[in-house]
Amino acid sequence: SQKIEQNSEALNIQEGKTATLTCNYTNYSPAYLQWYRQDPGRGPVFLLLIRENEKEKRKERLKVTFDTTLKQSLFHITASQPADSATYLCALGSAGNMLTFGGGTRLMVKP
Amino acid sequence: SAVISQKPSRDICQRGTSLTIQCQVDSQVTMMFWYRQQPGQSLTLIATANQGSEATYESGFVIDKFPISRPNLTFSTLTVSNMSPEDSSIYLCSVLPPTSPETQYFGPGTRLLVL
């Protein structure tokens, strides 16, 4: 069956460092992959989309890589700030624009 | 983008009762979805709300338990029927705006606690 794995343990890093979050998947051939941010008590907010034929995408301090051979995406936040503390969800998209979400990883950036 | 509101934002309900959650979008959208997010878990798709026809339910979700209405392109309701404590969860609606058909925009969610 399809499976999307994100590290369920919280990631704690120091302000200014680069945070790297991992999303691995099995039994899936997504057309694209997305990353969302979710703050407590709020709905997810879209951050980045990367397609199956793209290796890397950047947006300001965010960088996403997508390796369809390894079936893995890495999500990087450079020069992290305490305001970046949140849960980050990866989601795989297929035909019909249906999304399947991973369990999310909680990021804590300490000042 | 799309701005989505949900009502109520939270509720505490008794076992055996039903609650209807409303989702309002500030623009017309074709695709509207309802998700459930149980405590500490990720989002699980309940159904796709189709305008003018019956909703399309995912495996494990049925219309009798989660009836959905979609009377127009800006509004939908999800009812959680005959509630039990296992239905305690956050319920979220999301949309795919026509201008960005691969990006889902989510409402703020409805936090439900069933006693």
Structural commentary:
- The complex is a heterodimer of chains A (111) and B (115).
- Chain A is an all-beta fold and 111 residues long.
- Helix content of chain A is 0%, strand content 57%.
- Chain A has no helices and eleven strands.
- In chain A, the strands form two sheets. In chain A, strands 2, 4, 5, 9, 10 and 11 form a six-stranded mixed sheet that branches. In chain A, strands 1-3-8-7-6 form a five-stranded antiparallel sheet, with no helix packed on it.
- Chain A starts with a strand and ends with a strand.
- Chain B is mostly beta strands and 115 residues long.
- Chain B has no helices and eleven strands.
- In chain B, a hairpin with a 5-residue loop joins strand 4 (31-37) and strand 5.
- The radius of gyration of chain B is 13 Å and the shape is globular.
- Chain B starts with a strand and ends with a strand.
- The interface between A and B is medium-sized, with 19 and 20 residues.
- The overall average pLDDT of chain A, rounded, is 93
Please provide the ordered H/E string of secondary-structure elements of chain B: EEEEEEEEEEE
**Based on CA inertia axes, which overall geometry of chain A fits?**
globular
Number of helices, where a helix is a run of at least 4 consecutive DSSP H or I residues of chain B: 0
Structural class of chain B: mainly beta
Please compute the radius of gyration of chain B using only Cα atoms.
13 Å
Low-confidence stretches of chain A: none
Q: Secondary-structure element sequence of chain A?
A: EEEEEEEEEEE
Radius of gyration of chain A: 13 Å
How many E-type strands of chain B? Answer: 11
State the shape of chain B.
globular
Mean pLDDT of chain B: 93
Q: Structural class, judged by helices and strands of chain A? A: mainly beta
Distance between the termini of chain B: 37 Å
Query: Which protein chains are joined by the largest interface, and how many residues does each one contribute?
Result: A-B, 19 and 20 residues
Please estimate the helix content of chain A.
under 10%
State the major sheet of chain A.
6 strands, mixed
